[in-house]
Amino acid sequence: MSDDAPSTPSFALGDDHVELQKWVHTFAEDVVRPAAAEWDEREEFPWPVVEEAARIGLYSLDFFATQSFDPTGLGLPLTMEELFWGDAGIGLAIVGSSLAAAAVAANGTPEQIGEWAPQMFGSPGDLKVAAFCSSEPDAGSDVGAMRTRATYDEAKDEWELNGTKTWATNGGMADVHVVTAVVEPELRARGQASFVVPPGTEGLSQGQKFAKHGIRASHTAEVVLDHVRVPGSCLLGGKDRLDARLAKAREGVRSGGSANASMATFERTRPAVGAQAIGIARAAYEVALDYAKTREQFGRPIIENQAIAFALADMKTGIDASRLLVWRAAWMAKQGTPFEAAEGSMSKLYAGETAVRVTGQAMQILGGNGYTREYPVERMARDARIYTIFEGTSEIQRLVIARAISGMQIR
Predict the structure, then answer these.
(1) Are 328 and 341 a contacting pair, CB within 8 Å?
(2) How far, CA to CA in Å, does 383 sit from each of 47, 209, 298, 355?
(3) Cα angle, residue 57 at apex, residues 55 and 61 outer, rounded to 5°
(4) Residues catalogued as catalytic
(5) DSSP calls for 320-362
(6) Hey, which bits of 81-175 come out as E strands?
(7) Which of 117-131, 132-146, 298-312 has the lowest mean pLDDT?
(8) Which strand (E) or helix (H) includes residue 231?
(9) For residue range 46-103, what is the model confidence (pLDDT) as tens digits?
(10) What is the rounded distance in angstroms from the CA atom of residue 183 to the CA atom of residue 383?
(11) Is the pTM of this model over 0.90?
(12) How far apart are alpha carbons 234 and 171 in whole angstroms?
């Protein structure tokens, strides 16, 4: 190999990553897992668990920033896998604010990041949470159908937001909301921008709180924006950058990077979301493996039956393949390597579908026990299902991948 050959990611984790992995795993095992069933049943935000995460430094801006700047790109995926191995609902409650922080990091100026990111986490004893509000009742996968409007009052240097957002993690209860809105409707997805709505802003309220199939410890609700007025400084990226981008869009010029604010956020988070799904799948696989080695039928452990053993082999293979796809995408993103075949979408697609398949197989291996709440795989199967839906459905991921590999506008 020549001296100028490009560096490649290593499959062997360094000491820092191993230490991180063990630290998060210990918290997941000792704090998250014992609380998982209770908060799933209560369907409430697990404030005491998040408070404990803040106390040890896991729920903090410093922690997420440190992992985001990890030069290998593996810090966040490792964290997500171990945390969600503990429980997906509580895990999402702990990391939900980071999606809003990612939106500010993707679209904001350094000054905006410095002002708003700390207010999204708070500190032990004074916790804060944040919400990223993109989806709407008629605009989920079709971001071009977004109806929430932002109009500019030049005399007051203020923006007014009106509309309804849905499926917002921490929506309505958050201290800081990041909202995507249409500023120039004729440009559809390219005519959108992101805004910070500060704490206590009049006109923002929580709508319906959703009673969900899974991830029930995570708060998910509608956010209603009724004549919400925010200062011009709350436009992420600033007015000059927005005007320049809109001018290019009107001329049909493609700017570098993502075409709209929502996609700029999702592109940064998909590998980490894939890692969450891996954590759920791994947890279910481990329960099924232990059960198969101890559960006896016809005088022998059920793992000695090929049907069970082969199912477990497929589960393990799918989990490891998913992890490699996630690590590759995370590493590529951190190195600035272009996603020529939509590798980020590949990682989220495969990991999400693997989680659904593995948790279903785990329930099958446990038989009737797997269908009861006495064993955690029932909850894991419910939690896994969202990973083929949110942050881009499996169908949307396939569309993104197909467009990338074909170079054609597949619809």
Answers:
(1) no
(2) 19, 18, 33, 9
(3) 120
(4) 391
(5) HHHHHHHHHHHHHHHHT---TT-HHHHHHHHHHHHHHHHHHHH
(6) 122-123, 126-127, 130-133, 149-153, 158-169
(7) 132-146
(8) strand 220-231
(9) 999 999 999 999 999 999 999 999 999 999 999 999 999 999 999 999 999 999 999 9
(10) 36
(11) yes
(12) 18
Q: Look up residue 332 and give its two tokens.
A: 């590529």
**Residue 283: closest CA among 93, 94, 91, 86:** 86
Identify the pLDDT of residue 77. 97
Residue 128, classified by CB atoms within 10 Å of its CB into exposed (0-12), middle (13-18) or buried (19+), is middle
Tokens of 221: 């609700």
Q: What is the DSSP letter of 373?
A: T
Residue 70 Cα distances to 66, 79, 331, 384, angstroms:
6, 12, 10, 27
| Domains defined along the chain, listed by start | 15-127 (1.10.540.10), 130-250 (2.40.110.10), 261-406 (1.20.140.10)
Cα→Cα distances 73→124, 242, 292, 305, 311, Å: 27, 29, 35, 40, 32
pLDDT of residue 67: 94
Maximum CA extent, the chain: 82
- Say if CB 326 and CB 271 are below 8 A apart: yes
Which residues are 142's β-sheet partners? none
| pLDDT at position 32 over 60 | yes
Residue 155 is classified by DSSP as T
The secondary structure of 292-307 as a DSSP string is HHH-EETTEEGGGSHH
